[in-house]
Write a structure and sequence with these properties.
243 residues; mainly alpha; 43% helix; 0% strand; Excalibur calcium-binding domain-containing protein; signal
Length: 243
């Protein structure tokens, strides 16, 4: 009795369970091919374009190539364009294209640069000219050689003014040493005012010696009494002769 009741309950449960949908039967309650066509029509309508006519769709396999068509790929076209460009470049420059390869020989080094003399290279000179050429060049140089005879130095004019170089070598004391007594009022102001009229201390020293210096200082160019006017320094002249 229990076995009969269990069988009846199992049959009731089986009848109530939903059926498993067939994945190959299509989407929802339609055929899958019909669903694909409707989806394509809806997408075309949304994109604003109409479906192609049935006769415009080819049934040939994708791998088939129509007669007269080429099987070249876009990569082959790019390679062909590159080769054509390289050939045109080679034709313009006149130089062959260098094909880079590990088997290529090493490039030749630059043996000489423009502007660098190769006179010290016996091989280079021997290739350019012979011994006869050298003899001819030596003879040409000798023909152009001129000897300049020394001439006597012209006489210095008699009145050229004081010689500050001779004065610098004749004195030994440094700048600022009191040697000559100077008397006057406002010596500093007179010194600055009168020294400003000379372009250099050398010119001031020449004028100072011309007017009785160093014993006399009529223009006030040597207020410290060292015998050097307007800051003139005899040290460079002494150093020039090693003194």
């Amino acid at each position: 009795m229990r076995l009969i009741l269990g069988s009846v309950a199992l049959a009731a449960l089986t009848a109530c369970a939903p059926a498993v949908p067939d994945s190959g039967a299509g989407v929802g309650f339609q055929d899958y091919s019909q669903y694909q066509r409707e989806k394509a029509a809806r997408d075309a309508a949304l994109a604003g374009s109409a479906l192609p006519a049935p006769n415009a769709v080819s049934s040939e396999p994708l791998g088939a190539i129509p007669p007269g068509a080429t099987s070249a790929q876009p990569g082959a076209d790019v390679a062909a364009d590159a080769r054509a460009a390289l050939q045109a470049t080679a034709a313009n420059s006149g130089q062959p294209i260098l094909q880079a390869s590990p088997s290529n020989p090493a490039p030749e080094g630059v043996m000489n640069s423009a502007g660098i003399s190769r006179e010290n290279s016996f091989e280079a000179v021997g290739e350019q000219r012979s011994i006869e050429d050298d003899a001819s060049r030596i003879a040409q140089n000798r023909a152009q050689y001129q000897v300049i005879a020394p001439e006597a130095v012209g006489n210095r004019p008699g009145d050229v003014g004081p010689n500050i170089v001779a004065y610098a070598l004749a004195t030994k004391h440094p700048v600022g040493t009191l040697v000559y007594r100077r008397v006057g009022i406002n010596k500093t102001g007179k010194f600055e005012r009168n020294c400003a009229e000379y372009a250099s201390p050398d010119l001031a020293q020449v004028e100072f010696l011309k007017r009785g210096g160093p014993e006399r200082d009529r223009l006030g160019l040597d207020p410290d009494g060292d015998g050097y006017a307007c800051g003139w320094n005899p040290a460079p002249f002494r150093k020039a002769v090693g003194g």
